[in-house]
Write a structure and sequence with these properties.
The chain has two helices and no strands. By secondary structure, the chain is an all-alpha fold. Helix 1 runs antiparallel to helix 2. It is elongated and about 40 Å long. The model has no long low-confidence stretch (mean pLDDT 88).
Length: 56
Protein backbone atom coordinates (compact mmCIF):
# COMPACT_ATOMS: atom_id res chain seq x y z
CA UNK A 1 0.00 0.00 0.00
CA UNK A 2 1.39 3.37 -0.98
CA UNK A 3 2.00 5.96 1.68
CA UNK A 4 -0.06 9.08 1.45
CA UNK A 5 2.03 12.16 0.99
CA UNK A 6 1.04 15.68 1.91
CA UNK A 7 -0.18 17.81 -0.95
CA UNK A 8 2.81 20.08 -0.44
CA UNK A 9 5.25 17.41 -1.67
CA UNK A 10 3.18 16.87 -4.78
CA UNK A 11 3.29 20.55 -5.63
CA UNK A 12 7.08 20.68 -5.26
CA UNK A 13 7.53 17.54 -7.35
CA UNK A 14 5.33 19.00 -10.07
CA UNK A 15 7.38 22.20 -10.02
CA UNK A 16 10.61 20.22 -10.46
CA UNK A 17 9.07 18.22 -13.29
CA UNK A 18 7.76 21.32 -15.09
CA UNK A 19 11.14 22.99 -14.78
CA UNK A 20 13.04 19.94 -16.05
CA UNK A 21 10.72 19.48 -19.01
CA UNK A 22 10.98 23.18 -19.82
CA UNK A 23 14.77 23.05 -19.79
CA UNK A 24 14.76 19.94 -21.98
CA UNK A 25 12.40 21.50 -24.50
CA UNK A 26 14.43 24.68 -24.47
CA UNK A 27 17.65 22.81 -25.18
CA UNK A 28 16.22 20.47 -27.81
CA UNK A 29 14.16 23.16 -29.53
CA UNK A 30 16.95 25.74 -29.27
CA UNK A 31 14.73 28.20 -27.43
CA UNK A 32 17.13 29.79 -24.93
CA UNK A 33 14.48 31.91 -23.23
CA UNK A 34 12.52 28.82 -22.22
CA UNK A 35 15.62 27.29 -20.66
CA UNK A 36 16.40 30.50 -18.81
CA UNK A 37 12.92 30.63 -17.33
CA UNK A 38 12.54 26.92 -16.59
CA UNK A 39 15.98 26.49 -15.01
CA UNK A 40 15.27 28.60 -11.92
CA UNK A 41 11.81 27.02 -11.65
CA UNK A 42 13.43 23.59 -11.39
CA UNK A 43 15.98 24.83 -8.86
CA UNK A 44 13.30 26.40 -6.67
CA UNK A 45 11.33 23.16 -6.91
CA UNK A 46 14.30 21.07 -5.77
CA UNK A 47 14.97 23.40 -2.83
CA UNK A 48 11.30 23.43 -1.83
CA UNK A 49 11.06 19.65 -2.12
CA UNK A 50 14.10 19.12 0.08
CA UNK A 51 12.78 21.54 2.70
CA UNK A 52 9.34 19.93 2.64
CA UNK A 53 10.85 16.49 3.15
CA UNK A 54 12.99 17.77 6.01
CA UNK A 55 9.94 19.23 7.77
CA UNK A 56 7.93 16.04 7.37
Amino acid sequence: MAQQQPANLGVWRALVLIGAVGVAIGLIGKVPLLGLVAGPVAIVGVIGLSLARRNQ
